[in-house]
Amino acid sequence: xxxxxxxxxxxxxxxxxxxxxxxxxxxxxxxxxxxxxxxxxxxxxxxxxxxxxxxxxxxxxxxxxxxxxxxxxxxxxxxxxxxxxxxxxxxxxxxxxxxxxxxxxxxxxxxxxxxxxxxxxxxxxxxxxxxxxxxxxxxxxxxxxxxxxxxxxxxxxxxxxxxxxxxxxxxxxxxxxxxxxxxxxxxxxxxxxxxxxxxxxxxxxxxxxxxxxxxxxxxxxxxxxxxxxxxxxxxxxxxxxxxxxxxxxx
Length: 250
Fold this sequence. Notes:
The chain has helices at residues 2-24, 30-35, 39-45, 56-59, 78-89, 96-103, 107-118, 134-138, 149-152, 171-182, 193-198, 203-215, 225-236, 239-242. By secondary structure, it is mainly α. α3 (39-45) packs across α7, α5 packs antiparallel against α7 (107-118) and α10 (171-182) packs antiparallel against α12. The longest helix is centred in the N-terminal third of the chain and has 23 residues, at 2-24.
């Protein structure tokens, strides 16, 4: 009998040792997981932040924005969208509404919703856009204004993964963002590139650029999920191009 009791104790010992570990393991949040299962669910339901933080309520079911001051997300680069969400959550790009939305999402949630909008078809152009403004195409060397086209393309559809498409955005939104760059209210640009680029633009030039970009065709959506994921991964792997932030003391 004694040997039988000893063997029972031996068999129970591993289970007893595992009990403290089980007690320390955090419970699985099944409810939260359901709200963030896909990028579409996050966009339509706001993730764990709830319906009040649903992306579609401002950006529309088609991701095209409101045509006034809310930007389009559909067809934009996934890496760029992911970075903006991270910057909003960290208050690097300041916006009280978007900070509230983004802070409820972890990094995986932000990547998922960014990919969802990147895969959406870009909206049809409002055009015809007409010729691009000279200040957009060539800048003004005498005033230290670089060419917008050098980074964002002659059509506003972006050049490479580090320079986002800026075409087919509401003119009011573009005007607001350019003024934010000028006033240093937006500072999440790598090495202060945008702040330096637009500081000498006049209000008339800003309005001209924004009006043309509004009618310029949107960039086409990614060719495939793999291509878009590759862009996002590439952006995440290049902090000097994708995650640089201008130092507050500059």
